[in-house]
Amino acid sequence: MSTRRPDWTPTPQAVENSRITDFARFASPRAGRDLVGDYHALWAWSVDDVNGFWAAVWDYFRLPERPAGPALAAEALPGGVWFPGSTLNYTAEVFRDRTGTDTAVITVTEDTGPVAITWHELRRQVASLAQALTELGVRMGDRVVGYLPNGVQAVVAFLATAGLGATWAVCGQDYTAAAAEARLAQLRPTVLIAATGSLHGGKHIDRRADVQALRDALPTLTATIAVGDAAGAVPGALSWSALTQRDAELAPVPVPFDHPLWVVFSSGTTGRPKGIVHGHGGVVLEQLKNLGLHLGLRSGDRLLWHTTPSWMMWNVLVAGLLLGATPVCYEGSPAYPGTDALWRLAARLEVNVLGTSPGYLAACRKAGVRLADHHPASLERLGVTGSAFPADLQHWVAGELGSRTQVVCTSGGTDVVTAFLGAAPTTPVWAGELSAPCLGVAVEAFGPDGRPVRGEVGELVVLRPMPSMPLYFWDDPDGSRYRGAYFDVYPGIWRHGDWITITDHGSVILHGRSDATLNRHGIRMGSSDIYGPVEQLEEIAEALVVGVEQDGGGYWMPLFVTTTEGIDVDDVLSEKIRDAIRHGASPRHVPDEIIQAPGIPHTRTGKKLEVPVKRLLRGEARRSVVDPGSVDRPELIDWYAHIGAAHRRRDGTAAGPAASRSPNG
What domains appear along the chain, each with residue ranges and CATH number? Predict the structure, then answer.
């Protein structure tokens, strides 16, 4: 066993008082053994006895009475059948036993707020809008779509839609009209709810033209509801304010466990975005477990996760309502007017759980932000997700926050709108590692022969069904796109597309996407192993590495870097980068070239475009590689394509360290 000491350990009192310990006490008689005080024993039971575990989650959180019988009536991947004959409704679960003047939602923008919305007011607005949608012809199974910033309007619109048994989908206003159309037009929606503008980075973004363009692209619409002061500027649109001010009774419709709740979308970087459909029951169960047991949220707690409605973390944020917690919906940049803006907001609102990205935390460190100066006494957990979280950065964050705040790194996906890997209030934390697989997630690492491995890199697979796995993909009648996305390599086993190592103390190390694997001379390497040592250099803002297979068996592994202001990549810095990689990863991780880039392209949710860049460098047609509307800086597509073309024109292939190049190639 490993002798490495954890970087953070819960106190005995914290373990004793945690909700997950209370759940373990509740579940122990059902399991026939004591599950208290041993997370890995609780996890093992949760994946060995899938029926017993998910039935226990249902009963512990007091969901509606369910029919007798197994939780998982038919075990299949894909196609598991959960809780047949049961009915519930996401919106009904949000409002069950919750009324009055306690705060339900807090909204904040860069220039207003915070504004608290009570449970009474939230219920009134949801009921009013649900009545209006009914009058507009929305029926069970219809689609209502949003083009909205992260405010209370998106929450109300979602809950009203779900309460009717209609299906919700939303794009944030970080997307252009064309990018929103590529997603929402697939659904043939009945009603569009759209804001006329939003705030970001101190700028007001006028979206009136985008709303009109999006409306024109959705021929099935029977109505558009406009949100904002300029609502009158959208001809023929109905006023949000008028439709949410009535007095109406909230009466959510009970629906089957697998009734469609929402459609979330893949990034769409390599083709038409996939519409991923999740059901009411699966989402409710999974988020009660995820937020209630893993993040320890309780009624009255405050959850602030910086996100937009385009990212699955918005769905997780809103799900805090299922536990009676208060989501803080922040519209704006986490770094405006200063890099510490998100921390200042968390301290001002005394949040219990704060969520952000490694990129934002790295920016805080480079800007000299003292997290301790903005550390609310209420902060129990800092959630970090979205990309690799280097160990040195996690050490810095943990050192700033001290032992009273657990730093929780999680990894999952829009595919299941939750985490596969993470932590719990009772698990230790090792920097650079995810503490454990999540409850109910039968994670394994498969080696090249398709067998489980320990202590070495393998494919992340999930061996048994989860309730929040997709019901299906939109417009995929025969299921071929769904099966091809996850089950093409190991039939009957979910392959997620990440490289992981399961350690001998039960934690998990994430190495990056397996479809972006660096495979130099037959040795597989993860890109995150390179990003860690490179991005901690003070001269480097960000890095991207890819491995490009070439004709004749050659292999080219360039590293693209962006630098901090006023820094150029010269021979001295190039050698410093190589030395950091040699000592922080290994000599075999040293790239063939180090190229200074004008920027690193990301999806709209912040993930680096490793696979599309790899294909551009190989010379594949830009139109077939990436949708510019899904990229945060689409002008970079041409730059990377140009770099690939220049490389192919050169004689031979790069073999060993070559001279650095400027952004001009």
Answer: 528-649 (3.30.300.30)
Rounded to whole angstroms, the Cα distance separating 537 from 636 reads 23
Q: 453, 259 in Cβ contact below 8 A?
A: no
Angle at 247 between CA 246 and CA 252, to 5 degrees: 105
Residue 348 has pLDDT above 80, yes or no: yes
- Nearest-5° Cα angle at 171, 407 to 159: 80
Neighbours of 489 (CB within 10 A): 13
DSSP secondary structure, 265-325, as one string: E---TTSSPPEEEEEHHHHHHHHIIIIIIIS---TT-EEEE---TTSHHHHHHHHGGGGT-
pLDDT value, residue 651: 46
Nearest-CA neighbor of 539 among 570, 498, 508, 496?
570
Q: What is the distance between the alpha carbons of residues 446 and 450, in angstroms, rounded to a whole number? A: 5
Q: Rounded to 5 degrees, what are φ and ψ at 232? A: -65, -15
Nearest to 633 by CA among 665, 604, 662, 610: 604
Contact 262, 319 (CB under 8 A): no
Distance CA 663, CA 113 (A): 42
> Burial level of 368, CB count in 10 A (0-12/13-18/19+)?
exposed
pLDDT for 429 equals 96
The closest of 310, 401, 388 to 353, measured between CA atoms, is 401
pTM of the model: 0.85
